[in-house]
Amino acid sequence: MLRSMIAAVVTLVLGSAAVAQDAPTLRVGMSGGYFPFTFVRQGVLQGFEVDVMNAVGERAGLGIEFATMSFSGLIGALESGRIDTIANQITITPEREARFAFTQPYVYDGAQVVVREGNAGIGGVEDLRGRTVAVNLGSNFEELLRELPYADEIDIRTYESNIAQDTALGRVDAFVMDRVSSAQLIQESPLPLALAGAPFSEIRNALPFRSDKRGMALRDEVDAALTALREDGTLAEISQKWFGTDITSPD
């Protein structure tokens, strides 16, 4: 079941139980409301991102401490030093690369238009002219839409949550999210939704760190762990668990 984004609340959950208690701690921010990447079910924080970060912690010898908050607050929390990185499908963009030090990508995806089931008027991104389109506040999907040559013909609306519900209810004509999450949402949710066309932009998601001495050192440790997890098949295994396919490889 789709979980609403948890706003203005910080929940700490300790991961990587196999790591010694006195190990250095990596503070990882996530929304806890982005199924199946990070979500809460029966009071337990879980998902693809949680499994990946726990595997990174075990490989790098780091304790993992998760902090959940509103998605739109994650970048501010990273910049202020309240967390060390964000595991919430953060897409690499030129603007973000100028502000943060990124690891290698660990998810390859695409931007996807989603509509109410039966909406034959929108068959893909080219049909968004004159339409109202929802995106999550703070996500890169607003930027991708504004880069379209006909962006001034699209009424883009930012949401903290409930973009799927408002699309299903007809309050907006469509929403844009990553392809993997969109497909999983449609499969798991009772809402009458459907994919509209093919993905219209490649997305590479990675872990951002502050560009200071500590941040760069942590980035290097985590990046080395990701390389090892990719080479031994762990990343692919975690992806198969949650998606039935490997989204961790560009192939």
From TrEMBL:
Residues 25-245 form the Ionotropic glutamate receptor C-terminal domain. Its main location: other. Residues 1-22 form the signal peptide. Residues 25-246 form the Solute-binding protein family 3/N-terminal domain. Gene3D superfamilies: Periplasmic binding protein-like II. The keyword Secreted does not apply. The keyword Signal applies. One of its GO terms (cellular component) is cell envelope. It comes from the Bacteria. One of its GO terms (molecular function) is ligand-gated monoatomic ion channel activity. Keywords: Signal. It is found in: Cell envelope. Belongs to the bacterial solute-binding protein 3 family. This is Putative amino-acid ABC transporter, periplasmic solute-binding protein. It comes from Celeribacter indicus. The lineage of its organism: Bacteria, Pseudomonadati, Pseudomonadota, Alphaproteobacteria, Rhodobacterales.
